[in-house]
Every structure is written in C-alpha cells, then in structure tokens.
Specification:
Chain lengths: 226, 410, 166
C-alpha cells in the first residue's frame, strides 16, 4: 500500500466491488498492480473462435437501435448551456443594450470583436457606433458574455455558420442584434449562473431610467472616434 | 551517448553495400509524413531502412508549432485557458486544470471543495476521452477498424455529458481561476452516473475485440520495447513509463485536487512493449471509472467558484447595481495581477506529466510560460523503440506512444 | 415534344446536371487533419454523425484519389508548403473546405507561426465557423459544397452559364 492509501482523508467508500468469479485483472495485489499479461490460449491462437465471436458481436449490433442522428432533419437538442455565436441583445426600442465599454473587446482571446463607441441623445448616452464580430475568429468561448456588465452580449443557439466568402462572416450590428425574447433562455441561464456564490444578489436588468443631465440639453457633443 | 554536435546521418555514412554472403541490402531513405494517416497529426519521420529494418529514425517536428508560449506573454491569465485547451486536444479540460492549479498556486487562491471535486471529475472524464480516441485510432492503425466505431460511440456519449455541462464539445474553456465556469447540475450527475455504470461493460467489449486477438497480439507484442532504466533516462512519463514497470503516477506521487482522498490503483506493466502500453491504458480506463464512481456518489456541496472578491469576477447582479463591483469587474478582467514569483505545477495528464512553469513579474500577463508537455518528451522514446524494429512496426509504435502533436509542438 | 412525353418512364436531363449530381453525391474527402478539428472530423465520420449519408465518408489519405480537401486545423507556415503540394496533387475538379476558424482565418493565433487562413495558399470554397466546429457544422459545410458543385459547369470550375429559354 502506498502512503496515500494508508490514510484516506475523505470518507471514501470501500474498495470497488470485484465481481465474484470474474477473472483477476491483476497479477498480484500489490501497491502498483501489474496488468495481467497472459499468453494466448489455444483457442485464441487458432484464431477462428475469437474471430467468429468478434464478428458475431459486430453482427448483433446491426439489429440494435442505431445511434446515428440524421443531422439536417434531426437537429441537436438545444440546451441553455449551448455556446452558439455571440449576439447582441436588443432593447424594446430597437437599440442595442450595449454601452460600448469595450470589456468584451478586451477579453476576447482571438480579438474577434471590434467596437467603435458613439454618443446618442437617449438617456443612456453611449452606444456602439459600429460593433463588428469576425465570426471566423470567434471561438465561442463565452468570455464576452461572462464579463459583460450590461447583459448585452450573450451566446445564441445558432451554431452552424458556414459560408463561401470571408466577408459573410463579418457580422455587424444589423446582423448581430437579436430581440431579447429570442434569447430569453440563455439570458435566464446567465442570470442564474453568474450569481456565483451570492444567491442573494438579485439580477436586475440594466438601469434604463437614467435622466440626462439638463445642462446638456440641446448641445451636440462631438462623437468619439479612436 | 549522443551529443549536441551530432550530425544527421545520411545514406553515405551507413555501412556500405554488402559483401559476399551478406544479406544486407542498400540502405534506403524514406520520409513518412507529415501528412500520413498513422503519424497522429503532423509528424514527419525520416527513416533510413536497411531492407525492412529501421536503422535510423529522425522525427521532424514543428509542423504544428503555433507559438503558444510566446502568445502567453501577451494574454491575461484567464485568456490563456483558451490556448491550454488546444495543447492536447483530446483532453482539453485536463490541460485547463493544470494551468488553473499553476496560477492558483502562484496567487494563493483557495478553491472550494465542490470546485475541486468537479475539476477531478472532468480530469478523469478527459482521461477516458483521450484513452478512447487512443483505442479507436490505435485500433485502426493496427488493423482493427471496427474499434474506431465502438470507441467513438462511447466518446460521443461522453461528449454529450460535457456538452451539457460546458456548452461546447471540445475546447470547452470551462475553468476559471478560483473554480469552474458553471455548477454541475444534479440532473447531469444522474446522467453521468448512468454512463459510468454502462462503461465498464464497454471496456470489456474493447478487450473482446483486441486483447485476445491474435493479429493484434502479433502487431503489438514485443514491439517498441524499452527498459525501465531507458524510460527514466529519457524522461518518459505516463502510461508509457508505467508500462515498463515503474509505478509513478503524479496523482499519487504529488497529489493534487482530491486525489489523495480517492481509492484507485496505478496499474503497471512488466515488459514495456506496445502491448503493455495498451494493457495499462485499458486498465487506467477502468480505474478512472472507479474514481468517477466515488466522486459522483459524494460530491461535496458548496460553492463552485471561490468566494474571493479580488480574484474572481463578482456576482453579476451586483455588477449591474453597484459601482464598486463594476470596478471590481473591470479590474479583474483587465488588470488582475498575481504576485511576482515563479511556480511549477505538474498534473498527470493522459499522456504523462503535464507541467506548467510560470514566471510572473507581477503584471497582468505572464512574463514567461514554459509548458512541459508529456508528448514532446515521450517522443524521445521513439528512437530507441524504433531502431532495429521492422518497418511495419513503426505504425504500432507510434500508435502505442500516442503523442499529440498539438502538445508536442505547442 | 420531348422524349419524356413519349416514354413517361424515361427522365431526361442536361449532362451538366447529371455530372453535377454524380459529383456532389460522391465526394471523396482528403482529410488534411492538422490539429483539434481533425478529432471532430473523425467524429463526423463516426457512428453518431455518419458522413456517409452524404456519400462523403470515403476518406482518402492519398490526394490522387480525392476531390475535396478538408483542411482541419491550424496550418503553420512550416506545413503550408506541404499542404499546397497535396492540393496540387489532387486531380481536377477539386474543392477545399476550411474547417474551423484556424483554417479559415488563423483564428486564435495571430502570430509568426500560423498561416492567417488557408486561402492564402489555396482557393477555399466553404468556410466553417467554430473552434472546432461541431460535426453538425461540418456536415452543413459539406451540404453547402454540394450546393455549390451542383451550380457548376461541366468542368467543375466555372459557374454554370444561364440556360437560354426560347
């Protein structure tokens, strides 16, 4: 027995039960059991018996239910954990929920996201002027979704994106924006999961009732561009 | 012993064509790979053959060099998980566990028990996944094509479980510093238990197809034999070392995660040939199911990520509502700096000791990362195994060594 | 007027259609399995997804016997010459599927070692997203390629000329 076996720290269950009558798999019961390296029996050396047996085994599989999923007709069961392509959540008024903070752009390991921030006249003043994800860079890791402080980018259930031109894979705001109802399952999952240890932290949607500072009324601010 | 100044032997250097009564034929150079079905990816073997005997073998690597260690110097610690996934792509999550343990050792983060248990579970699932691919592809290499179908049948079922847990089939990006990405839901534990209950019978089926098969025996027995001393000299680890009779397993020798509390055996072989490596891997699959059974039966309750406001992203609800947590969120993502220092952490991956040597200058990205990849070092054993063997054996040798070029070339 | 009216059991078609139909349903892929995607490619041929339903399961490791190359994985510059040589050895007409983001654009790796997209060295017909793509996505890519092949002229290269209806 190795020293670690001698003092099991945890409430480990007993040794795994060995089926009665089963052939021993180990040559001897030592700390490091040797794998049993047996010679072939006469039957096995004659080859016919095991050969027929293995063929029979394969033959019987023919009458079992096959496990093939007929893909285009029979799609995968979509679960809320599924990582599809990242998309942007649209508010009721059609604007993105994104405030162009750039955190997803920073965290994206392949640097697939490109955001140009801009200003609006709406109560939430910042929004992305352009928001581009290069889907041929995206590795669907969901880091963007995890870091987003506004619940604005989530993983959709769309996972089969193919195309003939590379340009088709550069998704802009028009293609990325999806209404929140479509993404409800994933958003619910995000809210549940990213509570982490703090079950008490109620997840409220991003505050939408922020009033603009009256001093800015009527004044156009220059649009950021960097 | 070979020295660094060793030059490549060419045909001209080899024993000259035969004299009378000598059965030696003229040596022949043969390039195998880099696009060859039996080289497990993109390894090129430059062989020099004397008739059918291999007199010299030079593995040429680097066809899958992707500059990961250099990349690490420009990535945050969390981002580097995406690259560790793609090291040994048969067991992405086990690589992630290795990196997570390294960073946590450096930063001194306590990981809750449940997160540790989940990590142990996925480590063992990944070992099964890697060994299953090995069984399938190794079977194809040695002529048992139906093994591929059976092994992938089980692997698909396994991947359904991981898919449900992580959302992706491979390269899951599931681990976080201080824990895991999501909790292991109760209904998934039930499914995992069902899979585990079925799986030992499937291993028996694999053995039915391979172990007693005469063709398989003749392809594998006595092929690619190395002694324990040779294996230790070369730094071979993992099943390839244990097949020679040296029972070194880092889960036992330098325990991490929950392994000290678990009951399992470390199977060793006797002769160190390809057949022993096969037997050891098959037995390791059995031991992995045994570990998984123990873990799934008594998964500790609690948090699945450390309750650590400075090192882990804060709860989302607070980020939406509180300014402090918003700042924490931004700081943790963009500027999370572990202390200065250097640390080495090794884990037992499916192929052997997977180590990360991390040098931190106290910045938000590593100063230097060195990956001790088991495949790369196990590849050194190709030379002593193959020289003197028949040409037909090289496929069985490569199959039984089972190196992954993604990990080899990094 | 045509044959079909006189003999209802006979179906006539343009030769281009027939050739396109035959080509698209008997694709022989050349698996350029480089890294992670190669495992998913094997899973696509495996029992769960069974690419043979599309007539494309005969993986030929010899480029001479294949007509579609699936570039599965990261192509490094060291491998690029080899890949191009394999592509050149394939008989015409030939097509290329770039499987996964690494093959399509370099993906995660923006560095000195990796080709930023295999279209730098060979023409690509279908790009696939995902790292690695799910087998479903690869099947979708094969279907997309089949669609493309059906649209091609008889030499398998040019797009088909529009039919002039009188």
């Amino acid at each position: 027995m190795s020293p670690h076996d001698a003092t099991p720290a945890g409430p480990g269950p007993g040794p795994a039960p060995v089926a009665a009558g089963a052939a021993p798999r180990f040559a001897a019961a030592v700390a490091n059991p040797k794998v049993l390296r047996r010679e072939l029996t006469l039957n096995e050396r004659l080859f016919v018996g095991p050969f027929v047996k293995a063929l029979w085994y394969t033959f019987t599989r023919m009458f079992r239910k096959d496990i093939t999923r007929r893909y285009p007709e029979q799609k995968m069961e979509v679960k809320p954990t599924l990582h599809g392509v990242p998309v942007l959540v649209m508010k009721e008024d059609g604007a993105p929920r994104c405030v162009a903070c750039g955190l997803c752009e920073f965290v994206c390991p392949p640097r697939a996201i490109d955001i140009q921030p801009g200003e609006t006249d709406r109560p939430i003043e910042r929004e992305p002027k352009t928001f581009v994800i290069d889907m041929l860079r995206c590795i669907e890791c969901s880091y963007c979704e995890e870091v987003c402080p506004e619940e604005a980018i989530v993983m959709s259930t769309e996972y089969e994106v193919v195309g003939r031109r590379r340009e088709d894979f550069v998704w802009d705001l028009k293609k990325l924006l999806k209404p929140a109802q479509e993404l409800a399952a994933r958003i619910a999952w995000v809210r549940k999961t990213y509570k982490r240890w703090d079950a008490a932290a109620e997840i409220a949607p991003p505050p939408g009732g922020v009033f603009r500072d009256p001093r800015w009324a009527g004044r156009e601010r220059p649009v950021d561009s960097h | 012993m070979t020295t660094l100044t060793e030059r490549i032997v060419t045909v001209a250097d080899l024993p000259q064509p035969p004299g009378e009564g000598d059965l030696h034929s003229e040596p022949m150079e043969l390039s195998m790979g880099p696009q060859h079905p039996a080289t497990h990816g993109v390894l090129q073997c430059k062989l020099i053959l004397d008739g059918e005997k291999i007199v010299r073998i030079d593995p040429v690597m680097g066809y899958l060099h992707r500059g990961k260690e250099k990349h690490a110097e420009h990535m945050t610690y969390q981002q580097f998980f995406t690259l560790t996934d793609r090291l040994d792509y048969l067991q992405p999550l086990a690589n992630e566990v290795g990196w997570a343990l390294t960073v946590e050792k450096l930063a001194g983060i306590e990981v809750p028990a449940r997160a540790q248990a989940i990590r142990t579970i996925i480590c063992e699932f990944m070992r099964l996944s890697a060994h299953l691919v090995w069984a399938g592809i190794g079977g194809v290499d040695t002529g048992a094509v139906s093994m591929f179908m059976y092994a992938f049948r089980d692997r698909e079922a396994l991947f359904d479980l991981l898919d449900e847990l992580t959302g992706l089939r491979t390269n899951q990006e599931y681990l976080r510093i201080g824990g895991v990405g999501t909790d292991l839901p109760a209904e998934l534990i039930v499914k995992m238990k069902a899979w585990i209950a079925d799986f030992p019978a499937h291993i028996d089926q694999f053995e039915l197809l391979l172990t007693g098969n005469r063709i398989f025996h003749q392809r594998m027995r006595g092929v690619g034999q190395i002694s324990a001393a040779q294996a230790i000299d070369l730094g071979v680890t993992g099943p390839c070392l244990r097949a020679t009779g040296v029972g070194v397993d880092l889960r036992r020798a330098r325990p991490y995660l929950l392994y000290p509390q678990l009951e399992f055996d470390v199977p060793v072989g006797t002769r160190g040939d390809a057949y022993d490596r096969y037997l050891v891997r098959i037995e390791e699959m059995r031991q992995s199911t045994r570990i998984l059974k123990q873990l799934l039966d008594q998964l500790p309750a609690g948090d699945w990520i450390a309750k650590d406001w400075k090192n882990v992203l804060p709860p989302k609800g607070r980020v939406y509502t509180s300014m402090e947590e918003m700042i924490h969120q931004f700081k943790t993502v963009t500027d999370w700096c572990p202390p200065k220092g250097e640390v080495y952490q090794a884990t037992e991956a499916a192929n052997g000791e997977l180590g990360f040597y991390l040098l931190s200058a106290g910045e938000s990205h590593p100063y230097r990362v060195k990956i001790r990849s088991p495949s790369f070092i196990n590849l050194q054993a190709l030379k002593p195994m193959a020289i003197g063997a028949w040409f037909g054996d090289i496929v069985a040798i490569i199959a039984s060594l089972h190196f992954i070029m993604g990990e080899c070339d990094r | 007027m045509g044959v079909e009216e006189k003999f209802p059991e006979v179906v006539t078609a343009r030769l281009t259609d027939l050739v396109g139909w035959a080509r698209k349903n008997s694709l022989w892929p050349m698996p350029l399995g480089l890294s992670c995607c190669a495992i998913e490619m094997m899973a696509t041929v495996g029992p769960r997804f069974d690419l043979s339903r599309f007539g494309a399961e005969v993986f030929r490791f010899s480029p001479r016997q294949s007509d579609v190359m699936i570039v599965a994985g990261t192509l490094s510059w060291k491998m690029a010459g080899v890949a191009r040589r394999i592509y050149d050895q394939m008989p015409d007409p030939k097509w290329v599927i770039a499987m996964g983001v690494c093959a399509s654009s370099g993906g995660l790796y923006r560095n000195y070692a990796v080709v930023p997209g295999v279209d730098r060295i060979m023409p690509v017909d279908v790009y696939t997203m995902g790292c690695p793509p799910r087998p479903d996505t690869l099947i979708r890519a094969v279907m997309e390629l089949q669609k493309k092949i059906a649209e091609l002229a008889i030499d398998g290269r040019r797009p088909r000329e529009p039919v002039l209806v009188q």
